[in-house]
Amino acid sequence: MRAVIPLHGDYSNLTIDQIASDPYFVPETTTLRNQLNAFLERHAHFALVVDEYGALMGLVTLEDILEEIVGEISDEHDIDLAGVEIIEEDQVITKGTVTIRDLNRKCNWSLPDEEAATIAGLVISEAKIIPDEGQAFTFFGFQFDILKKERNQVTELKITRLETEDEA
Questions:
Q1: Neighbours of 16 (CB within 10 A)
Q2: Band of the pLDDT at 166, cuts 50, 70, 90?
Q3: Helix (H, G, I), strand (E, B), or coil: what is residue 43?
Q4: What are the tens digits of pLDDT across the range 29-77?
Q5: Which long-range contacts (CB under 8 A, 24 or more apart) does 95-101 make?
Q6: In the prediction, which pLDDT does 14 show?
Q7: How many CA atoms lie within 13 A of 6 on its CB side?
Q8: DSSP at 6
Q9: What is the mean pLDDT of residues 92-103?
Q10: Residues in a beta bridge with 118
């Protein structure tokens, strides 16, 4: 925006090279403390995460790190998570395409996201089948009810958090 606002709508001489910065890569093994310090030193707010082979794994932001430390931070740029309807404190109806990470943040859950990125992917990965409507599965302390399926895609689920060890 610093490059665009002064142009007052005349973008004819603007090139991406003028405003682009070099990518900042970090290994996936970087600790939160080290990454936070690196962000402070570089005056950066995000970095691209790579694995041991240099393959792109994702993006980490300063906000991600701060939220890991202090909890969810809401601001005017955050939008409500689309595709998730909270029915009760421990029960939601969600689209299959909702990411596990977003659902965990929204509901303060800790579903694993190592094997799959979406909630439908998690169910398929754990069930080892493409489930049908009406099927239910229980793993990780949750019950997953398949509400809708289109072709081979789980499109809607009801997820219920079951009694945890602390509550038993």
A1: 7
A2: low
A3: coil
A4: 999 899 999 999 998 899 999 999 999 988 999 888 887 787 666 655 5
A5: 95/155, 95/156, 96/120, 96/123, 96/153, 96/154, 96/155, 96/156, 96/157, 97/155
A6: 78
A7: 5
A8: G
A9: 91
A10: 99
CA distance 155 to 83: 10
Q: What is the pLDDT of residues 105-155, one digit of tens each?
A: 888 898 998 888 899 999 999 999 999 999 999 999 999 999 999 998 999
Distance CA 40, CA 63 (A): 12
Question: Percentage helix, strand, coil, to 5, in the chain?
Answer: 25, 30, 45
Cα–Cα distances in Å, from 78 out to 2, 47, 74, 84, 85? 22, 20, 6, 15, 17
Which of 122, 1, 110, 114 has its CA nearest to residue 58? 114
Question: Which are the contacts of 48, defined by CB distance < 8 A and separation ≥ 6?
Answer: 23, 24, 25, 26, 56, 58, 59
* Amino acid type, 36: L
Reading the block at residue 22, the tokens are 């070099």
Q: What are phi and psi of 125, to 5 degrees?
A: -60, -45
